Amino acid sequence: MEGLNQTLILTHLVPAVLLLAAVFDDLKTKKVHNILLLAFLPIVLALRFYFTGMDGLVQGLIASFAAFILCLPLVTTKALGAGDMKLLMVFSFTTQVDLIFWMILYSFFWGAILGVIRVIMDKEAILLLKNIGKLVTKKSDEIKKFHSIPFTVAIFLGWLTLLTLNN
Questions:
Q1: ∠ at Cα 109 (73, 147), nearest 5°?
Q2: Model confidence pLDDT, tens digit, residues 55-74
Q3: Are 77 and 115 within 8 A, CB to CB?
Q4: Dihedral sign, Cα of residue 17, residue 18, residue 19, residue 24
Q5: Is 156 left (phi over 0), alpha (psi -120 to 50) or beta?
Q6: DSSP state of 5
Q7: Burial call 56-81: b when 16+ CB within 10 Å, e when fewer
Q8: Are 97 and 88 in contact (CB under 8 A)?
Q9: Burial level of 35, CB count in 10 A (0-12/13-18/19+)?
Q10: Residue 125 · residue 119 · CB < 8 Å
Q11: Please, what is the Cα angle at 160 between 157 and 166, to 5 degrees?
């Protein structure tokens, strides 16, 4: 039972606190601050090492590198914020490398849903459809407006989806 509780701390409690802190930071200031991530990094590393040893720490490093590789093209095209990428990299130390891919995929699914909801709430669904049409016809230079969402919410929902589908 004790091993189960330790595993739950690393795989559920710590990620929940990290992601919720990032969500609140993002909703309040529209960015994920480095100081928040730097505060969580040693905690996550220490817990990963304590619960899983050096092998687990190496797995976390590999998962973090995978998150970096998956997110870097999106950050360079400004489809994703650098703070979101760094959040995923810190978060990766609480999970396995194969799960980080799925979490990022689920996060983008939720990001798309939240983006469409935002567009509808802003009463700009027609503009969204026109922009999609321009992207499909390769006239993307004429796009009028981009909509952004606090992507940390999508990351949190992606994590909840991962937990739901894997448990």
A1: 70
A2: 999 999 999 999 999 999 99
A3: no
A4: positive
A5: alpha
A6: H
A7: bbebbbebbebbeebbeebbeeeebb
A8: no
A9: exposed
A10: yes
A11: 140
- Mean predicted lDDT score pLDDT of the chain: 86
Kindly state the tokens that stand for 72.
């870097």
Quote the tokens at residue 165: 């589908």
**What tokens appear for 5 in the block?**
């509780």
Length of the chain: 167
List own/partner pairs for 117-121 with CB under 8 A and 24 or more apart: 118/147, 118/149, 119/147
CB 152 within 8 A of CB 22: yes
User: Which residue type occupies 141?
Assistant: D
Identify whether the C-beta of residue 104 lies closer than 8 Å to the C-beta of residue 89. Answer: no
Per-residue pLDDT tens digits for 72-95: 999 998 888 999 999 999 999 988
How big is the CA angle at 19 (ends 13 and 25), to the nearest 5 degrees?
135
- Model pTM score: 0.83
> Cα–Cα distance between 60 and 150 in angstroms, integer?
25
Q: By C-alpha distance, which of 113, 124, 121 is closest to 146?
A: 124
Q: How far apart are CA 75 and CA 126, in angstroms?
A: 27
119-130 residue pLDDT tens:
787 777 677 667
